[in-house]
Every structure is written in C-alpha cells, then in structure tokens.
Amino acid sequence: MKRILVVDDDSRIASALAIRLEAAGYEVLSAVNGLEGLDLVLNQKPDLIILDIWMPVGIGFSVAQRLRGLGLKNIPIIFMTASKLKGLKQVAKELGAAGFFEKPYEPEELLRAVSDALATKAVKNSNLSLNGLKSPTATPELQHEQNTHHRG
Amino acid sequence: MKLRLLYLEDNPDDASLLRLKLSKDWPDSEVAVVANEADFVRALKDRQFDLILADYRIPGLGGLAALQLARKSCPEIPFVFISGVMGEDVAVEALKQGAADYVLKDRLARLVPAIERALAEAEERARRRQAEEHVRRIQTELEQTNRDLLRKNDEIQNFYHTLSHELKTPLTSAREFISIMIDGLAGPLNSRQLEYLGIARQSCDQLRVCINDLLDATRLETGKLAISLKPAPLSALIRRVVTAVTSTATEKKIALTSEVQPDLSEIPLDENRMTQVITNLLNNAIKFTPPGGKIVVKAGDAPDRPELVQVSVSDTGCGIAKEEQSRIFDRLYQVKTGDATSEHGVGLGLYLCRELVQLHGGQIQVESKPGQGSTFSFVLPKSEHLLRANLLLVDDDPQMREVLHELLERHGYNVQTAAGGREALEWMRQKTPDLVLLDLAMPDLDGPGTLKEIKENWGGVPVIVYTGYAESELVKQALVYSPFTLLAKPCPPAELLETLHRVQRAGDTTTWKRNHFGLMKPRLKRPRRSDVRTRKSVKLN
C-alpha cells in the first residue's frame, strides 16, 4: 500500500484529504506543520507528499527545499495553496513539483495527479535500479540518505 | 531701511570720505571699515551686513581674491567694487566673477544708485531661491507621497491576499466534506440528500468565484493585475469555455450554441484571463435567461474593422433597462431585477470583464432590449503592434534618447523620439501619442513651453516630466501647466516603467482623487502666481 504524507496546518482539510485518500486505497500520514512533516518524511519514508504552502512553522517551499537538500529528490511533492499570490506555481515548478493545486481543489483531479505522480516515480525508480546494476556503488540517493544519518 | 555696510579699504582718508558721503545720502547707514585680509575674513564670518564695498587695490590681497573670499563665505550678499582706477577689462572680469557693480572713486555720485540696485537684485535672488526651495520641497513631498502610496498599495494588496487565503481555507474543507458525502464516502445517501448537498457545493463554488473576483478587483485597483499576451487561438478557447458551461445551461434547459468563424487566426491573448471574461459573460447569460431560452456565442472579424476580432454573447433573457446599460460595467454595480429571489453577485464580474478586455487593448459594450434579451460584445486587436502604447520621448541629449528609446521599445512601447520641443509638437500634430515623456531643459522650445502647448492643444494626453533638481527653476515654470507627473532624474528603469504603467492606467497623478478604497491620491498644490516669477536676466553693465 502506497503511503502518502499530508502536511497542512488546517486539520480539517488534512482530515478531509485523509478520508479521500484512504477511500482511494492509500495509507495516509498527516502533519500540521513543515517541521513535523520533515520529521515524518525522514522516519516514515512516504511515497508521496501533499504539501500546503503557507504554514506557520516551515512553509511548504522551505520543506521541499530541505528535502532536496537531504537528497530526497525522488519523493514526488504535490503543492496546495489557498493563496493566489503570483509566482507560487512557478516556484513550485522550479522545485520539481509533481502537481500544484489551488484550494478549493477538485478531488478527482487531485486523485489523478496522485496516481500519475506515483506511476511516474515507479518508472523512474526502475530506471534507477537498472543503473544501479551497472555500477557497484550505491545510488546517489542512498548515499545522501546515509549522510543525513551522520548529520542527525 | 537701515543699511549695514562692510567696507574693505586700506586708505583711511578714502574710508572717511565715503562715510561722509553716505551719511549725507543715506542717513540711516552704518559702515564697518576693515583694512586687511585678516579683519575682512573675520567680518565675513560675522555676516552682520547687507552689502560689501571693497577697494580694488588692497595691498597683500587683490580685489578679485577679496571677491572670491566673499562669494565663498556669503554668496547671497552683494559685492560692489569701489576704486580709483579700474579698467574696462578688469571691471568686466569682476562682474563675471560675481561682483554686483563697480563705482569709480571720482564718480561717487553713482554709489547710492549702485547700492540700491545691488540690494534690489540681491532681494530678487533671495526670492527666487525661496521659490526654488519651494519647488524642491513640493518635489520631495510628491516623491514621498508616491512612495507612501506604493507602500499603501502593497499593504492593501497584502491584506486582500491574506483575507482571501483565510476565506478559502474553511471554504476548502466545507467543499471537500460536502464532496466526500456526495461521493458516498460517508455512507449511502438518498436522492433528496444528494440534491441538497449539490446545492451546498454550488454555493461553495459561487463563493470561491466571489473571493477570486474580489482579489482581482483589488489587483486592478492597486495596478498589480498584469496580463501576459501571447498569440493563442481564440476559437479553441471559446470551445473549451462553451464545453465547460454546457452542463449548467442544459440543466436549466437553455440551448447554448456557438458560431465561430473557421479561419480565425491566433491573436494576442492572456488565455486564463480571456477564459475568465468569456466564462463570466456566459454564466451571466445563463443566470438571466429563463428555461427554454437561447444563448449564442459568436466570434469573427469585427464588422468594418478587419484589424479587430469581435466576440459576442447573446441571450434571450430578461434584458437590461436603457438607463442601466451605461452603468452595468461599473465596479460594484448590481442590476436591479426587481426579483427578490434571483441571485446577485457582488457586482464585480462585468467590471472585471471590462478591465480585462481593456488590458487586452479591446473594448466591451452591451446592447439590450428589456424583455427580449441582451448581447454583450467585445473587440480585441489582432496584432500586438496595435496594442503597444505610443510614447513620445522628448529629450535633447542624444545619448539619453538612445538609452530610453531602447529600454522603452523593449518594454512594449512604440517610441517616437524628438530632440526638442518644436520637433515634439510637430510629431504630436501628425499623430497624438498615448503619453509623453518630457525632459525640461532643452534648447529651442524648452520643457515648460512644450508642456504649455501640449496642455492647451492635447489636454487629455498624460505627460511625465522627468527632470533633475538642477532644473528646479524650470519645474517651477512647468508647475503652472499641471497636472503632470513628475519623475526625478536620474531614475532607475524599474521606477520609470512603473510610473509609465501607472500613468497609462490612471492618467496624470496630480489629479488623482479618492479611489474606491478610500485612499487619497495626491493632489498637487499649484504654486501661487506670486511665487512664480520669470527669471530676470542679470545685466552686465
């Protein structure tokens, strides 16, 4: 069962998302701010993250940046925001977002984006393991993960 | 008036003679005599006098050196040479260096008139300095006000962003929980429950549109709504919008059809914003058309205007009374239907349509007969060239002209340059520009003169005067022909462009009035006529 982390400071939206995603057959973790979200990513290794942008502690973009910095590039992130500030979508794109949704979102579209992102990730991972067979060293991604343990 | 003189003179006899002469001609005068450089410098520091008299030949200190000392420490005090022998060439040199006059010792009868004239000129200079100070102060205030307004703009913008975020967050969870129930994730529902939840979800959607419109309106008001135009197929866009609203029309038993000219080429569009405009017009048509009615969307070349595309939405709805047609695009205006049960918007939808169409360089209008239906139609230019604002750049400095020309062309202006006032007016007569960027200090016809002509003959064309502080005398003259927008030179490109955009949208800033958010835009005080004096040329004889 694929594991999805929902990070949103509005607990009602988080639980609505959980109901929706669980009904679609996913396992759902939730966090109410960016820091808690980061902690869950490192400990629970979710397959995908749905990340609100404006949160009191650790805005979505900085969480995403931190994850990139930790080498966790291959966890797809779908951003969500109730804000209409210009340029948010562009920043999300530059951070390699798998999706960008304005609230209120259309549930069907969100579910489609989630399954598409997971499918793309699966294709990428299989390519990655093929590369891994050719080279005796660990994949860069794993190396980074080991580094983070040292840092932690 | 009591006259206090400082007299630099090493010959005590001459000093006494002058004292005697003055006490006769100007009884209320006081002469302080200094005989050497040290005393002269000390006296200059004290500044206890209205005029300086100096012998041209002071041992150890030349007359011109004394003049320079005085100019340096008290430039505002008139300086008159008094000398036994003074050649023409020396006298001219002295006047060039700032002496007010010179009097020969054997013609002392000229002394009093010379002093009177020097004092009058000094007074005139002081008045002019005051006026310049006044202009400089206005300019500084204007700049400060503009900065304050921009900050205020940002604050309003931030406030509405926060507000919309805070409104949408609970709206999102409300809508999603409703959807969860509709989708049966909370157990089975009967048809009546489903119907009611459907209505609740529609209300959520309506609220979302409202919040977005409110935010867009704020963006427009604060000049922050930017659209980006790219060539795009209008026909495909119309098809998408029609498809999206068809179900709503069908539900209400309204026949929705579209007639789009097949060979319609791509035109410059902001696709999101144009979608918003057409969706809004269609939703309005659906809202005000009774079941069984018809709505037709048309797009094609505008009649008699091959350079424009026309889009129209016609309905067979209740129509709009004649007196309301002119106001229907106004901000916050709501049509009075007399029907208490019909839905009302906040009155932003059509306002946004008009503004967005105008940002595309187009125009929107309505034709309607009450009881028979309405047609909303708008035209859009087919080429971006038609969209670019025509700007007349007037500057005598070729380098400045080139730099600005390049910058402005790059940022979407059709630039016509003129090297002086007369050339500028020549261009104005050939083609009226959308705005004028005007330098003040120019040969032939200067800035104020050009501004006068523009204001008299092309009053509606906004003018941005850009000028340095050094030209405050010219600014003062130009102020008579306000309103115009003042921009201090040198000015960073971003500020220049922002000012141009603002002026293009709002016209000359000096006529700004209270806007919808209760924000006072600056009203520049005209200087009193008495403050504005033309420069008096100082004669050298």
Question: SSE layout and pairings?
Answer:
The complex is a heterodimer of chains A (152) and B (541).
Chain A: E1 3-7, H1 11-23, E2 27-31, H2 34-44, E3 48-52, H3 60-69, E4 77-81, H4 88-94, E5 99-102, H5 107-134, H6 140-151
Parallel strand pairs in A: 1-2, 1-3, 3-4, 4-5
Chain B: E1 3-8, H1 12-25, E2 29-34, H2 37-46, E3 51-55, E4 57-58, E5 61-62, H3 63-73, E6 79-83, H4 88-96, E7 101-104, H5 111-182, H6 191-221, E8 230-233, H7 234-251, E9 255-260, E10 266-269, H8 271-288, E11 294-302, E12 305-315, H9 322-325, H10 349-359, E13 363-369, E14 373-381, E15 389-394, H11 398-410, E16 413-418, H12 421-430, E17 435-439, H13 447-457, E18 463-467, H14 472-479, E19 485-488, H15 493-506
Parallel strand pairs in B: 1-2, 1-3, 3-6, 6-7, 9-11, 15-16, 15-17, 17-18, 18-19
Antiparallel strand pairs in B: 4-5, 8-10, 11-12, 12-14, 13-14
Helix pairs in contact in B: 2-3, 5-6, 5-14, 6-10, 7-8, 8-10, 12-13, 13-14
